[in-house]
Design goal:
binds magnesium ion; single chain; binds guanosine-5'-triphosphate; Rossmann fold; 26% helix; binds zinc ion
């Protein structure tokens, strides 16, 4: 016999309203409601389970302050991780836009890891090569884009947010229209500059990177969601602080291979069904590598992550 429905324990049922988290800073949050009003928000019960992009239920405002009563189920969550902790980046995304450029210090592994993290959460990816106005190392960047487009099947666009912001905004807006998009990348690559070309009202702070250190200055310090209208649609663009290492302590061998089509497409003919494509005899991936069908730098990256995965096993 069906049990009678349990009476809701929610103490503020009927008095809550939906909102979206636009910014979190420690225990300090901001949310925006459907009519675009912004409130300062505190999580009920001092829980720290809120990230930018979350859909939440808030209790009626007292002044300009609300309590976040409940975090609604997430469609997805992009995060990075190391052996000690998980760093949540943003939730309920339609697209992860990875921004990269040759200056300061381009790190292809950052881009590759960001792509894998997104793929493992089933979030579509756009790669944005920024700073096409820089001549130095341009050939290297073009080659990297070819690799990502032709071998890995990624959607790649090339822009100069500073020298041709209008065209950059046009190209990017077409891809972002109607979506919630997270901008992610190493510090100094131009995420906030790109945001500003799309939504000038964001007026996000940008800063010249350190030429002495060839490093970004971590100008953006909190992940922030900007709601905006462009390309005739409602959009949400999330700017995030740059960081150095995109930790992937949460992925397994299957997830890794599934997110590397340039390697996976050669894995059909291995002698052993459980071949890891690192040292086994009769490996069709290593045969493809020897034939020049796989980029050595991608294979090295794959082996480094596989070694991490194997070392993690209890
Ligand atoms: N030459 C050139 N410089 C650019 C371009 N886009 C951005 N920059 C410059 O790169 C520097 C860093 O840009 P930001 O937008 O602050 O970079 P960010 O990725 O937001 O950096 P963090 O907030 O530290 O993560 C600034 O001096 C920008 O003016 C571009 O297309 N060409
Ligand atoms: Mg920034
Ligand atoms: Zn193999």
């Amino acid at each position: 016999m069906a049990r009678p429905a349990k009476k809701s324990q929610d103490p503020v049922e009927g008095q809550t309203f939906p909102a979206r988290v636009t910014r979190t800073h420690g225990r300090h949050h901001f949310v925006t409601d459907a009519s675009g009003r912004t409130f300062e928000a505190h999580r009920r019960g001092k829980k720290s389970d809120v990230v930018a992009g979350d859909n939440v239920l808030c209790s009626e405002p007292h002044g300009n302050v609300v309590a976040i009563e409940r975090v609604l189920e997430r469609r997805n969550l992009l995060y990075r991780s190391d052996a000690w902790r998980i760093k949540e980046l943003a939730a309920n995304l339609d697209l992860v836009a990875v921004v990269f450029a040759q200056r300061p210090a381009f790190n292809p592994w950052f881009v590759w890891k960001a792509v894998i993290a997104a793929r493992c959460e089933n979030i579509p990816v756009l790669l944005i090569r920024n700073k096409t106005d820089l001549v130095e190392d341009a050939a290297r960047m073009e080659d990297f884009c070819r690799l990502m487009q032709d071998d890995c099947g990624e959607d790649v666009i090339a822009v100069s947010a500073v020298c041709d912001g209008e065209k950059a905004a046009e190209q990017i807006a077409a891809r972002f229209a109607g979506k919630t998009v997270l901008l992610v990348g190493q510090s100094g690559m131009g995420k906030s500059t790109i945001l500003n070309t799309l939504c000038p009202e964001a007026a996000a702070r940008t800063q010249e990177y350190s030429h002495a250190l060839n490093l970004g200055k971590q100008t953006t310090t909190t992940t922030t969601l900007y709601q905006s209208t462009f390309a005739g649609r409602e959009n949400a663009v999330i700017d995030s602080p740059g960081f150095q290492e995109f930790g992937l302590a949460h992925i397994d061998a299957l997830g890794l291979l599934g997110a590397m089509p340039d390697i996976a497409r050669h894995a059909e003919g291995c002698r052993f069904y459980n071949c890891t494509h690192t040292a086994e005899p009769g490996c069709s991936v290593r045969a493809a590598l020897a034939d020049g069908k796989i980029r050595p730098e991608r294979y090295d990256f794959y082996c480094a992550l596989m070694a991490e995965i194997k070392n993690r096993r209890p």
